[in-house]
Here is the input.
Amino acid sequence: MQGKGLITIVAIVLGLICLNELLPTWYASKIEKQATAIAGDNPEKYQKEIAKLSKDTLNLGFTKLYYTKAKDKEMKLGLDLKGGINVLLEINQRDLVNDLTSYSTNPVLIEALNKTDEVQKNSTKPYIDNFFDQFDAINKAKGTNLKLADPELFGNTTLTEVKYNTPDDQVKSIVKRKIDASVGTAFEVIRTRIDKMGAVQPNVQRVPGTARISVEMPGMKDIDKVKKMLQTSAKLQFWEVQQVPEMAPYFQTLTSMVAVKGDSMGVAKTVNFMNLLHLDKLRTNGVANVKLSDTAAVNKILNSKVGQSLRPSNIKYTQFMWGYKPEATDTESLVLYAIRGNINQKAPVDGAVETANISYDELSRVVVDMQMDSKGAKEWKTLTEKNVGKPVAVTLDGRVYTAPNVVNAIPNGRTQISGNFSQEEAKELVDVLGAGKLPAGAKVVQATVVGPSLGQESIDAGVMSFGIAFLLIIVYIIFYYGGAGVYAVIAMIINLFYIFGIMDSVDATLTLPGIAGIVLTMAMAVDTNVIIYERTKEELFAGKSILEAYKDGFKHALSAIVDGHLTTLLTAGVLFLFGTGPIKGFALTLGIGILMTFFTSVLISRAMIFSRLNKGKHLSVWTGATKNLFRNTWIDFIGKRKYAYIISAILTVVSIASIAIHGFKYGIDFTGGRNYIVRFDKAVNAEDIEGKLVTIFKTEDGKNSSVEAKTFGNDNQLKISTDYLIDDESLKADQTVEQKLYEGLKTSLPANTTMKDFKAPEKGHVGIISSEKVGPTVADDIKTHGILAVVAALGGIFIYILIRFRKWQFSLGAVAALFHDAVIILGAYSLLHKFMPFNMEINQDFVAAILTVLGYSINDTVIIFDRIREYLREKKSLTLAGLFDDSISSTLGRTFNTSFTTILVILAIFIFGGDNLRGFMFAMLIGIGFGTYSSIFIASAIAYDFLKTGKEDEVHGKTTSSKEVLTSK
Here is the structure.
């Protein structure tokens, strides 16, 4: 066999590379198992054992392994397998624009920014592009003829590149470049912060073309701490403080107004606002000392439209901010400060910190010493000179850390922050300040949190489904193809080894959908072998020798295999391009698997088989039970196509009607919202729980938010979805939702369950084992990308089939079949989502399933089309109908075996792969079934109907010899 030596060399070299990449994973796992065996569930003892075992080194000659290095290089596991947090941060581009315009108050600019904020909620365009569109439209409508280089806009000292006569297009280019650079700075700052947190194998990436940064931190448990560290701007600001005498008249007015208009201010009319302030207990430079339970009511009153309208001129721009935490002398209350603002709310001192460290004051209390940069030092000197004897507030992200009186001017930029810190809180602040400031605020627009217990369960479920699927394939392939099946199994094992090795070498992350992708790759590997072996059987039945039969089997099967692999690779590419998170991981795994399947199942398998045959040894390609299966099967498919058209038409109409009437159950990926998977210690009633939560999740105007509770897997687990406060992307909003969820479920939890336990339950305990949040803008992007992915896949497949088969009729038939499959799957999800005991939401996973099914279906179609193309060249004496029937009938063995093994694999994942994959696999099951059907009865039938040139001979037997012309229109 030509090239055998080269294939062998490549296989060995690739194998050694994969072995070298996988050894660290094996060694780290070995050490951790040893530590667990000794320490059990004791985390402190476990860490001691790890430290002890880490000193050992394993010398393999070509490499040395020790635990710390192996841990760094081991294969990355996704959140769904390891637990942890994944967040999508978005840098506030409005802040960046304000900064570049030096916080200009130009009315056209302000209106354009406000309009952009609204438009951005339903747009996939970058913020800055929408801003320029809105600015141009408003500028034209108002006839102001402002130039972007105007000093009130971007022609200021902040942007030295912009001159007074710089054209608008050039200014836009400069601003975009500056904003991109600022996002790059934010990326570096966030990566530095994560390093300081000691995260193991974090993954930080910029999302191309956006101001978003994706952060994945497997194994992290303190989710609030992570979010706080990532969102904190580290932009220390210093403000003048207004005190009680200046605020008292306004507070008295509010107290009187609440009694009249309390309802419209969000509180009861009986509330006495002045009593909530507890001015008699105030011991600081604040303006109120409010009980923690009353802070929400005070916020509603101060921020209400009525409250805003009553402000006198001296406090028109005042910002009310809360203290960082309760004072040590009163742990049940929080101090409210009145910060003297201005029209653009720019702080008098807004400088970065060059250095920060923990220190202690004269009373041995923990404080943070810091040194400002040169700009901040100058501004700080001016502010302290102006306010000697008066209080100045030190704020960070809208919280007041301290507000002492200025004793004298501070000329050198050195200052001290005291905030009743614990040692840990001070360290967090120092870490944040030391990593540098973000150029603008950051908000979490999407977040996924998976508890460690669910991660381990996912690993167990994934391994079980993987093992069962693998075993089923081995048994079936050897049963059906005998000795040749053994070589197929060997090639499949090598394939798996290569997939894991390559994934590790490219630093890919293995996820639960990734495991599903690997299992599906095994089905693809079986498909490849089935095509080869079925073709080899045909050659043997034609009377050829075993050696010649295998040669021709590989030769004639190659075209179909290449087409099938390339169309599936196209689908994987579309998924990778438009997918995010786990779906991108699924696509990467599928893509690597397809390439390795071709190498192992075609090239390596060929080398092994011919090595045996060239030695004169026999290699069976069937067993006694399977030798003649499908051999003489012939069905008049074309003659029965009208029945198939009727069935498909009925199914399509029912599906479209259901979609129009019942719609879908959209996941939060597409609508925005929060999902929580909550585990209880006993069975719970989903409807009762939902009823309780509906009364709790009410907006400030008293309206109910959307709430749904549904059994998830076992009857002691619920998946709870809500859109409550989803437009608020702050950490406080996340905590508020979790607190309300805890309150609503408290009666169903064990009596001793605390809020802390509920949010981060240990293994086996009750509480939130997984949560997910998707903001409205991200949901809109995901939905748009999902639609684009399906359209791109259909378009790409149409073009590929057209190029490969050179007849538009084949492309039309293929795409019509794919559209048919997609509509029926959508119809099934519309009809059944209320009744099935597992998740049937339309979300990212569903889009991935649809595209995977399309890839599988077109693969099936290509095999049949390839045989039709072959027969068109060789059997010109047949009628076109007979030729199609012959082609489909001759590939029935391949069609059955591929579909049967794939369905076996999907059933294994569906049953044993865990609750998270059931909806995904259900779509795959429907899709594989109808994909096989549509390849025969839709794709082939439509291609036939558009290829025939005149009235077709009604005889569709395989021995017909009509002189029908086979040229297409």
The longest helix spans residues 4-39. The first strand starts at residue 57 and ends at 59.
